[in-house]
Amino acid sequence: MNEEIVYIENMNSPRDILLVSQALELLGLRVKEVELGAASYYNPGGVIKKATIDKALEEMGFSLMDSEAKLFSEQVRSLVSVYIDNCLRQQQETSFETFLEDALKTPYLLICQRYLSITGQRLSIFLRRMKVERAKILLINSNFSQEEIALKLGFKTVKGLSRMFREVTGQSMSVYTGRELYAALPKVV
Fold first, then answer.
1. What are the pLDDT digits (tens) for 136-159?
2. 3 forms bridges with which residues in the sheet?
3. What is the pLDDT of residues 19-43, one digit of tens each?
4. How many angstroms separate the CA atoms of 149 and 152, rounded?
5. What does pTM read for this prediction?
6. 157-165: long-range contacts (C-beta < 8 A, 24 or more apart)?
7. C-alpha 21: how far from its chain's center?
8. Which of 24, 116, 177, 185 sees the fewest Cβ atoms within 10 Å?
């Protein structure tokens, strides 16, 4: 009996994991593991077809994603991380768009359209969130000033990073840094 894996769109919470697991079991599949975006199972005798699984999941608001699409979205996410790492190590000479086009040998507009259709999220929003996550790490774990962090992440001024940081987190960089540093202090009883 071979293990099979399906990739599933629109899974966002632990409740979704439970729903998908129950749906697969109701179809007669032996569920090995379900996580956000994927499920592995054993299909005794291979009697349950993917179309049947897709139909059952669609009734609950989910849909199957082909493994090629999953691979593409993971590749793009990985390249976003590489691009940000390159920015942090040295000033990145090329724009994000050019970097992605060169890496994937595909026009940037097509990359964005495909990423949106697979993940349901615009690539520019994912890039913003990743930059803010890196800024959070640098604010707490480095001696870089806000200006240095902004320049390292490809912003022309600290104002651009500050605006994006506030949009994503709902708080200023100074407030975030203060809260994180306060939380890290040992509690005195």
1. 999 988 899 999 999 999 898 999
2. 42
3. 999 999 999 999 999 987 789 999 9
4. 5
5. 0.65
6. 161/131, 161/135, 164/128, 164/131, 164/132, 165/132, 165/135
7. 22
8. 185
